[in-house]
């Protein structure tokens, strides 16, 4: 729509203004430019748009609003991911707790037998294991076999066997290097070498003497800190604290080929 507005009304004090009228266009106001001026002048030899000061400036509110929305979206996504991670971790903890409680109930149901007095000391009233029950008294000789001495020589041969055959292959180690020591004895000696009661995580692990020393120190540190270092080895507790701690630093295996056979070593 074209509107005629006398220039004298717009610039009464302008010496260069001429009588007459300047055609102006009425500009519709859009929702995104609520502060824009509604009148935009045609070009005039005496009155320019900048002179009128009625030019429509760029509105930066739209870009700022988009940035704010994007920031809010990113923050919501991060919050959502954090909540999902917490829920997943809590779910895993609940599942572990349910398993431990189930194990305790099974122990209470089947471990203690009224007709056998000795079984009453296997577990505590809450179903946790009584570690003292499984520990033989000091100086107890379990068989009539002559007492064998474990010296540095046997220790070196066991380490050599672990490097060659791996943890869990105690029969091969016994037959090849330590024939006077049965596989079960070598398993117990390996537990003390590594400092871990449960060697399942070390199955097939071939570590050097330095690797074995490192595992021993790590297990000992965890055991002392959590109060689960007993008889020179790290034992797992019913609360699951040890299991959670060792999972933070799992045993790493490295595969390599030696004499055409695949071997695993911890780096």
Describe the structure.
The protein folds into 3 domains: 2-52, no CATH class; 61-120; 147-265, no CATH class. Helix 4 packs across helix 5 and helix 5 packs across helix 6. The chain is 44% helix and 10% strand. The chain has helices at residues 7-10, 49-52, 61-110, 152-165, 170-176, 183-194, 209-226, 241-248, and strands spanning 2-6, 21-26, 39-41, 229-230, 233-234, 254-258, 261-265. It has 267 residues and is mainly alpha-helical. A 3-stranded antiparallel sheet has the order 1-2-3. The longest helix has 50 residues, at 61-110. It contains 8 helices and 7 strands; from the N terminus they run βαββααααααββαββ.
Describe, in short, the structure shown.
The chain is mainly alpha-helical and 267 residues long. Helices cover 44% and strands 10% of the residues.
Q: How many beta-strand elements?
A: 7
Distance between the termini: 82 Å
Indicate how many domains the architecture comprises: 3
Order of helices and strands: EHEEHHHHHHEEHEE
């Amino acid at each position: 729509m074209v509107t005629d507005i006398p220039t004298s009304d717009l610039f009464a004090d302008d010496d260069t203004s001429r009588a007459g009228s300047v055609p102006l266009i009425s500009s519709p106001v859009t929702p995104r430019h609520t502060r824009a001026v509604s009148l935009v002048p045609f070009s005039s030899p005496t009155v320019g748009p900048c002179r009128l000061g009625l030019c429509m400036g760029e509105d930066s509110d739209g870009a700022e609003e988009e940035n704010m929305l994007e920031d809010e979206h990113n923050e919501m996504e991060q919050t959502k991911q954090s909540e999902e991670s917490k829920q997943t971790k809590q779910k895993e903890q609940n599942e572990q707790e349910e398993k431990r409680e189930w194990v305790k109930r099974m122990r209470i149901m089947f471990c203690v037998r009224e007709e056998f007095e000795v079984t009453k000391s296997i577990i505590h009233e809450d179903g946790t294991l009584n570690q003292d029950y499984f520990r033989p008294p000091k100086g107890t000789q379990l068989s009539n076999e002559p007492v064998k001495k474990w010296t540095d020589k046997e220790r070196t041969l066991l380490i050599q066997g672990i490097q060659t055959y791996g943890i869990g292959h105690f029969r091969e180690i016994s037959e090849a290097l330590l024939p006077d020591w049965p596989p079960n004895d070598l398993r117990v000696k390996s537990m003390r070498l590594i400092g871990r009661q449960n060697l399942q995580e070390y199955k097939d692990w071939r570590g050097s003497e330095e690797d074995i020393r490192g595992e021993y120190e790590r297990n000992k540190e965890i055991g002392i800190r959590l109060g689960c270092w007993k008889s020179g080895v790290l034992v797992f507790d019913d609360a699951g604290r040890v299991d959670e701690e060792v999972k933070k630093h799992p045993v790493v295996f490295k595969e390599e080929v030696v004499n055409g056979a695949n071997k695993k070593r911890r780096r």
